[in-house]
């Protein structure tokens, strides 16, 4: 048996149990459990099998790599249809961001509300635009992208650029008041080569990347290209996985 923090909700004490022999999971915090397809359903908030299979196929990393994916029907790529976007105003989405430590006055100018249909069912999520016209999507159960996948870069006329892995970390930095420069959100560490092209010309590149292997590899890739112009700020949140987790810990400390 293995125990984890539930991957689709915020918790500080692990309540998510995985039976590696039976390849099933159970979340004692919600009373739900099942196989990998049921887990995908928790991420996307849907019991539709085709949508669950598409989510598993599309994910860069499987939520539970120790669980083998049983062979079911042929998997299909999710197709986003009937997409419409409006200013972020939904109370549940704003409530989710608030749980992540992000206030509305930070989120609303930087994000949008995206509603869309997949396999005939309607969903909604927080949207964050990238420079190729795609939309990074996030809600309490789902993390994905309406393609194309690309970086997000905002010019503020600075010769310094702050780099983040995802938009939740960028919003966390705004909430903490530590960004006073141009900024670039990778939206995926696989976009580092695209980021390199965009970062040419900056005098300083300040990295706020995750404290994990992927974050360290990304920093090294940028350092190999730009040398000492690249500054690693991960020591600011050395005891935390990322900037958002650091923000949550500060908020928890302030509430004590």
Features:
256 residues; alpha+beta; DNA Primase, Chain A; Dna Topoisomerase Vi A Subunit, Chain: A, domain 2; 5-stranded mixed beta sheet; 14 strands; 31% helix
Structure commentary:
- There is one protein chain.
- This protein has 256 residues and is α+β, with helices and mostly antiparallel strands.
- It has 3 domains: 2-58, DNA Primase, Chain A (Alpha-Beta Complex); 81-146, no CATH class; 152-255, Dna Topoisomerase Vi A Subunit, Chain: A, domain 2 (3-Layer(aba) Sandwich), CATH 3.40.1360.10.
- The chain has helices at 36-44, 49-58, 91-99, 104-110, 167-176, 192-199, 213-226, 243-255; strands spanning 2-4, 16-19, 24-27, 32-34, 81-87, 112-118, 121-129, 135-138, 143-146, 152-154, 160-164, 182-185, 204-208, 230-232.
- Strands 5-6-7-8-9 form a 5-stranded antiparallel β-sheet. Strands 10-12-11-13-14 form a 5-stranded mixed β-sheet. Strands 1-2-3-4 form a 4-stranded antiparallel β-sheet, with helices on one face.
- A hairpin with a 2-residue loop joins strand 6 and strand 7 (121-129).
- The relative contact order is 0.10.
């Amino acid at each position: 048996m293995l125990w984890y923090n539930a991957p689709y909700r915020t918790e500080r004490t692990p309540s998510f149990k995985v039976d590696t022999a039976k390849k099933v999971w159970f979340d004692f915090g919600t009373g739900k459990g099942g196989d990998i397809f049921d887990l995908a359903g928790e991420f996307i908030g849907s019991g539709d099998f085709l949508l669950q299979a598409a989510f598993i196929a599309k994910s860069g990393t499987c939520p539970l790599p120790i669980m083998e994916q049983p062979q079911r029907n042929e998997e299909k790529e999710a197709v986003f249809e009937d997409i419409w976007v409006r200013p972020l105003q939904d109370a549940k989405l704003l409530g989710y961001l608030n749980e992540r430590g992000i206030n509305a006055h930070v989120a609303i100018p930087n994000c949008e509300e995206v509603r869309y249909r997949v396999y005939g069912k309607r969903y909604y999520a927080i949207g964050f635009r990238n420079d190729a016209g795609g939309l990074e999507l996030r809600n309490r159960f789902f993390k994905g992208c309406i393609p194309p996948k690309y970086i997000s870069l905002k010019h503020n006329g600075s010769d310094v650029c702050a780099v983040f892995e995802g938009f939740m970390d960028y919003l966390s930095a705004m909430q903490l008041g530590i960004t006073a420069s141009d900024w670039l959100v990778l939206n995926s560490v696989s976009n580092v080569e695209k980021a390199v092209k965009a970062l040419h010309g900056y005098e300083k590149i300040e990295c706020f990347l995750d404290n994990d292997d992927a974050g360290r590899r990304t920093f090294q890739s940028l350092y190999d290209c730009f040398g000492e112009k690249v500054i690693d700020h991960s020591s600011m949140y050395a005891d935390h996985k990322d900037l958002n987790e650091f923000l949550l810990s500060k908020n928890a400390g302030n509430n004590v």
